[in-house]
Amino acid sequence: MTTVSITRKALTRGALAALSGLLAGFASLAVAELVSAAVRPEASPVTAVGGAAIDRTPAAVKDWAIRNFGEDDKLVLQLGIVVTLALFALVVGLLALRNRRAGSAAVLVFGVVGTAAAVSRPDSTGLVDGLPSLLGAVVGAVLLYVLIGRLSGPHRDTGDEPDGERADEPQHEAGWDRRGFVIAATAAAAASTAAGAVGRALNSRSSQNAVASREAVTLPKPASPAKPIPAGAQLRVRGLSPFTTPNGSFYRVDTALVVPKVDANSWRLRVHGKGVRRDLEFTYQDLLQRPLIEREITLCCVSNEVGGPYIGHARWIGVRLADLLKEAGVKPPSRGGEADQIIARSVDGMTLGTPVEDVMDGRDAMLAVGMNGEPLPFVNGFPVRMLVPGLYGYVSACKWIEDIELTTFDDYDAYWVKRKWARKAPIKTQSRIDTPKPFGRPEAGTVMVAGVAWAQHRGIEKVEIRVDDGPWRPAQLAEQGTVDTWRQWSYPWKATPGGHTLTVRATDGTGELQTEERTKTVPDGASGWHSVVVTVD
Length: 537
Known about the structure:
The protein is α+β, with helices and mostly antiparallel strands. The chain has helices at 3-39, 45-56, 59-69, 73-98, 100-120, 131-152, 170-175, 178-206, 208-215, 284-288, 321-327, 356-359; strands at 268-273, 280-283, 293-300, 311-320, 341-346, 351-355, 366-371, 374-375, 385-387, 401-407, 430-435, 445-454, 460-467, 473-474, 476-477, 487-495, 498-508, 530-536.
């Protein structure tokens, strides 16, 4: 047998061994998906490992991911996990060709990592969450052992000898079972595909009750409806963000790899903790039957860079949160209350810490059930989410909320505070140029510069524009909805040919001028003036 022939056959067996590793990894994931349908969808390995990765990622890295990938950051993470698993599977397959038992045992590492990730998640229900990863890994290990056995030849059933020691022996090359490998690999691929498909179908079916419960909701008329949006609140300028953000366009920043789909019929909210005279529990229908308020509120994420997109406005309907707290006997610290922090817990284990004083100072803090005239979309927190005007979302806007605990800032650090974000985070005065876009090429003449400014719960008093290093000029302000909404502005600029820098700044309702100091989003939100560079033709 020639050296070329031996090398070609060795390469073929190596490629098939790598393929065996991939098939074993695929089978592991497919079986895990099927088992997760019997446990819960969040226990599947990719979701569990992805969630654990998010939990352990430094704040600066998360901020970088949001800045560079936007709302696709979770998709990128999931793809990264799958690619990593595929590379791991390839290596394990090649290892198994040299040592069958060691390679198969290495597959179990998959189960250990997945199990550890699943049981360590904040929303874990216990050791049972580790079953999908564990059983999937066992199936993958057995499959790899069987497939490598078809490649190893009759004299290496145990696979304990290093491969290549007898590569020059014809009977060794002739001994591996090509037909048996093809049959086993094909059957494994088909069975894995079927298992994965069934698992996905069952997991999808488990969310159908949630979908049906949302479709059955008819929001009651609010006892306290929102005032009509002023006719002049929406300027007619091309390229300017609409005053009301459509639900489908509303920004999303959270840590949930899989959007929780909660059945409103089984959902419960518990109120308990320090200063609570008696624990309260509410169903979804309990909330709908209470007097509802409807308010125009602009939300902003603390991860929003200067000029960034993570801000949106909607008309919300819900229950005034202060009323529920008073009903439970809670008093704010200014009136002798024991608790100064609300810990809001989501069904996915997320915790947010909110100052009790801010919730009970008269602002329209609420448990929202509706958004822009319809029940909350799942991605925005159905069935219930929390809103506190004037505070960044990470300390006030808990989606999929199911628990409210009264405590103190000294006693408990919420999820983001443990990751070096500030405990208290009032929204900073900010402004943004929407049009013209950065590096735009408007024509000389009158160019309408326009954008939005916000300082929730303080309102916007003035917006100014500067061209290059010239003087600050007042922009024309649209009508202001309320102090809790953003405000549009425009400025007719007589543009001259050449490159120019446009800069905007705002003054809030208290008279405080937006700071020029440029800071990053960590620990309490970005600051600085937004500028765009354009070239006038």
